[in-house]
Specification:
Layout: E1 3-9, H1 14-27, E2 33-37, H2 40-49, E3 54-58, H3 59-65, H4 67-70, H5 78-96, E4 102-106, E5 110-112, H6 117-123, E6 128-132, E7 148-156, H7 159-174, E8 180-181, E9 184-185, H8 190-197, E10 201-203, E11 209-211, E12 221-224, E13 227-230, E14 234-235, E15 238-240, E16 245-247, E17 251-253, H9 265-286, H10 306-329, E18 333-336, E19 339-340
Parallel strand pairs: 1-2, 1-4, 2-3, 6-10, 11-15
Antiparallel strand pairs: 4-7, 5-15, 6-7, 8-9, 12-13, 13-14, 16-17, 17-18, 18-19
């Protein structure tokens, strides 16, 4: 039975989104990836290149199909509106792909290193799939942003899969903001209540699913060709490259220092290097149509409170210091003429 995937991104995430697409195609040949294009430039390029099994949808067409979601746009920041779209977009694709077995939302900055088949084997008879953040003890404080991560959210196209998905969509229409309010935060805080409220919801236990900077400190990462191994046992299935960004014109940085995560030679060479190399190749190919080499990930929502603004200023200054330190210690990738060193 077919398994279908969906994601969303704008021109700023084009190279990341296409990197996700190619990695998914390598490990799940024939799988369809629906892309909600968050700006006209992204749709125009994806429509022009017409990649196999990649289905781009204009944001305006989706909004016309779901006016309740579109009505929230004026009262939310851009990033908050993008959060609001996630469950509605997943439901939209699930309804159009009713003959498929699973429809799964993927964040645009994921990259597959192996087949997701072990995830589906683990899910068994489950109808709704979520993935924990798996914060290490030193980062327990981050649970206020949600126990579960929206990097992978899957729903069977049956009643037990679509019912929680509809509930999640309704809750995000009701409230979806870029700050913590009790157990609520953006779209992902609701996943905790969803897991308690509905049957057949399964939290993925495979540590190879959604390895990320925020949980990397939990594990030993090794390489035994051709696999990246977690604690010498579980192969890496997909990595969440949250926080990868350009800086100082010719460097690509990771987000590990913010999470006190190790950045070993194995992690650099066998996890980050393939991702950065493929992203750069894609950028070289699409720059003729849209210049994405200087594109920046979407900034988080501005906040009005003075102390929150001050906190954001301190965070930006700290991140700049981390970037300088990464240059000195060799963690950052130097990009020259489209190649990373």
């Amino acid at each position: 039975m077919e398994r279908v995937y969906c994601t969303c991104f704008d021109r700023n995430y084009l190279s990341r989104g296409l990197t996700l697409y190619h990695s998914l195609r390598r490990h799940t040949p024939g799988s369809r990836l629906w892309v909600l294009c968050l700006d006209p430039a992204a749709y125009r390029l994806l429509h022009e290149i017409a990649l196999p099994d990649l289905i781009p949808v204009q944001l305006s067409d989706f909004e016309a199909a779901d006016p309740d979601v579109a009505a929230t746009k004026t009262g939310r920041s851009l990033v908050e509106y993008y959060f609001t779209l996630c469950p509605a977009w997943l439901l939209y694709v699930a309804q159009l792909e009713a003959d498929s077995e699973w429809v799964t939302y993927l964040d645009g900055d994921l990259f597959f290193f192996g087949s997701p088949e072990p995830i589906y084997e683990e899910l068994g008879s489950a109808a709704f799939a979520i993935v924990p953040h798996r914060y290490p003890p030193a980062l327990e404080r981050l649970k206020r942003f949600g126990v579960y991560n929206v990097g992978w959210v899957g729903a069977r196209t049956d009643l037990d899969g679509l019912t929680p998905l509809r509930w999640w969509r309704e809750k995000c229409i009701e409230w979806c903001h870029d700050y913590v309010d009790g157990e609520r935060f953006a779209d992902q805080g609701y996943l905790q209540e969803l897991a308690r409220r509905f049957p057949r919801v399964k939290a993925i236990e495979n540590h190879g699913a959604n390895l990320a900077p925020w949980n990397l400190a939990n594990y030993r990462i090794g390489f035994r060709a051709p696999q990246i191994l977690i604690d010498d046992t579980q192969p890496l299935i997909f990595f969440h490259f949250q926080g990868v960004k350009r800086g100082f014109g010719c460097f690509i940085f990771n987000n590990h220092r913010n999470y006190e995560a190790p950045f070993t030679s194995v992690v650099r060479k066998h996890i980050y290097r393939p991702y950065v190399d493929e992203m750069l190749r894609i950028e070289q190919g699409i720059n003729a149509s849209i210049d994405v080499s200087d594109a920046k990930p979407l900034a988080r929502a501005d906040v009005n409170a003075f102390w929150r603004r001050l906190e954001n200023m301190v965070r930006r200054a700290r991140n700049r210091c981390f970037q300088l330190l990464d240059i000195v210690t060799g963690r950052a990738f130097l990009v020259l003429r489209g190649k990373a060193y």
